[in-house]
């Protein structure tokens, strides 16, 4: 993965921008559970009214065991593009080559 460079404003990281439709429904539910539980259950993420930001571990072996195969594949794609996060936004990019879940 590319080196994260410090700037006068802090670290600058890349993210993969995708529609929330690329995140399986069970993973969306896990994100909502995480946010509603105050971070005690579910998928670790940052969230807002329109989607989630999920950290992408630098190494595949560091992906949490409970991550779905679909999200793990998206994380692998993000790593290939030197991204540290995946931003799932309801108005985010739709990639025709990726699965899309209603």
Assess the beta-strand content as a share of residues. 15-25%
Count of DSSP helices? 2
Spans of 5+ residues with little confidence (pLDDT < 50)? none
Strand runs, count: 6
Radius of gyration: 13 Å
| Major beta-sheet overview | 4 strands, mixed
Please provide the ordered H/E string of secondary-structure elements.
EEEHEEHE
Overall helicity: 10-25%
- Could you give the order of strands across the largest sheet? 3-6-5-4
* Mean of pLDDT: 93
Give the end-to-end Cα distance, rounded to a whole number of Å.
32 Å
Shape: globular
**Helix/strand/pairing class, anyone?**
alpha+beta
Q: How would you describe this structure to a colleague?
A:
With 102 residues, the protein is an alpha+beta fold. 24% of the residues lie in helices and 22% in strands. A four-stranded mixed beta sheet has the order 3-6-5-4, with helices on one face. The chain has a two-stranded antiparallel ribbon with strand order 1-2. A hairpin with a 2-residue loop joins strand 1 (6-7) and strand 2. The longest helix is centred in the N-terminal third of the chain and has 12 residues, at 25-36. It starts with 5 loop residues before the first strand and ends in a 13-residue tail after the last strand.
Summarize the topology:
Layout: E1 6-7, E2 10-11, E3 15-19, H1 25-36, E4 46-48, E5 51-55, H2 69-80, E6 85-89
Parallel strand pairs: 3-6
Antiparallel strand pairs: 1-2, 4-5, 5-6
What labels would you give this structure?
102 residues; alpha+beta; two-stranded antiparallel ribbon; 6 strands
């Amino acid at each position: 993965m590319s080196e994260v460079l410090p700037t006068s404003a802090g670290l600058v990281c890349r993210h993969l921008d995708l529609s929330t439709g690329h995140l399986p429904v069970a993973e969306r539910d896990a994100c909502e559970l995480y946010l509603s539980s105050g971070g005690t259950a579910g998928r670790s993420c940052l969230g807002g009214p329109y989607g989630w930001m999920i950290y992408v571990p630098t190494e595949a072996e560091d992906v949490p065991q409970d991550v779905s195969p679909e999200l793990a594949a998206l994380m692998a794609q993000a790593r290939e593009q030197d991204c540290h996060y995946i931003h799932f936004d309801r108005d985010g990019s739709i990639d025709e080559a990726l699965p899309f879940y209603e």
